[in-house]
């Protein structure tokens, strides 16, 4: 039987964990084994559909971390364990994991950009012998916006993890952030000059976040002498069908949903405004 890539299927919410005021992680019953960095189209009948990254997966389940911003995500926010939502996918190319084996991997993630790369970090956390070294640089707006605090704490046992916030909120402190991590205020780009690069040829970088963050973060790494071919980014650009049909994601001649969302920076630099 030919699989219909458009056909949504039911996925039961097994668990729901609060990350921030607006972000929740949903564990969904789903047998699919995606590639690290892929996304699904998530829908609610009569409401709509939107692309969401797979933030983690395991035997019989997928996790997605969803920020309440508009009609579909507001509808999902109201759901509870036992309720059902609809998925189709997985779509997109994912990260080229083997390219990072034996290398010094640096992951720079801003805000919800940490979601698509979380499963990659978890993979290497479970197999640290596959990397030479790993640095995780994360940036959020305020301490209240920090995602995956428990995971940051866990990763910091094995990797170097830095968390920066643009500004302190009214709680006025960084203590709410995982305390094994280095905690700072300032933009994520301010962390890059202090990253120790063992040898330039061995460094590979993943950058995920808003386009402006990816652009300036990549520029900082280029200034440190990295080749653009050793940098990868992932786009969370407006998408609709996820299948190369509607054209919503198209930048010039590139369909982000088909060729991405992960791009080598040699190509991505032409796509970032
Ligand atoms: C590959 C990919 C992966 C993604 N992964 C994630 C993820 O892991 N987690 C996550 O939370 N999100 C993710 N997103 C983003 C998510 O798909 C969008 O936030 C999506 O638009 C939410 O749908 P919605 O119907 O809830 O919001 P929408 O109604 O589409 O609103 C989204 C935003 O647009 C604004 N907006 C809506 N309508 C208008 C208008 N008429 N004029 C001006 N502004 C408007 C809203 O204020 C809001 O800020 C991803 C996107 C892509 C492409
Ligand atoms: S999202 Fe429809 S063509 Fe890419």
How much is the radius of gyration in Å?
18 Å
Which structural category fits the helices and strands? alpha/beta
Compute the number of strand runs: 16
CATH topology descriptor of the largest domain: Rossmann fold
Q: Tell me the overall shape.
A: globular
Overall residue-averaged pLDDT value: 91
Summed up:
The chain contains six helices and 16 strands. The protein has 273 residues and is of the alpha/beta class.
Please describe what this structure looks like.
This protein is of the alpha/beta class. The chain folds into 2 domains: about 10-90, Translation factors (Elongation Factor Tu (Ef-tu), domain 3); about 95-270, 3-Layer(aba) Sandwich (Rossmann fold), CATH 3.40.50.80. It contains 6 helices and 16 strands. It has helices at about 70-75, 115-125, 150-155, 210-225, 255-260, 265-270, and strands spanning about 10-20, 25-30, 40-45, 50-55, 55-60, 60-65, 85-90, 105-110, 135-140, 160-165, 180-185, 205-210, 230-235, 250, 255, 260-265. Strands 4-3-7-1-2-6-5 form a 7-stranded antiparallel sheet. Strands 11-10-9-8-12-13-16 form a 7-stranded mixed sheet, sandwiched between helices. A two-stranded antiparallel sheet has the order 14-15. It is globular. About 40% of the residues are buried. The structure holds flavin-adenine dinucleotide (FAD) and FE2/S2 (inorganic) cluster. FE2/S2 (inorganic) cluster binds near residues 244, 246, 248 and 249.
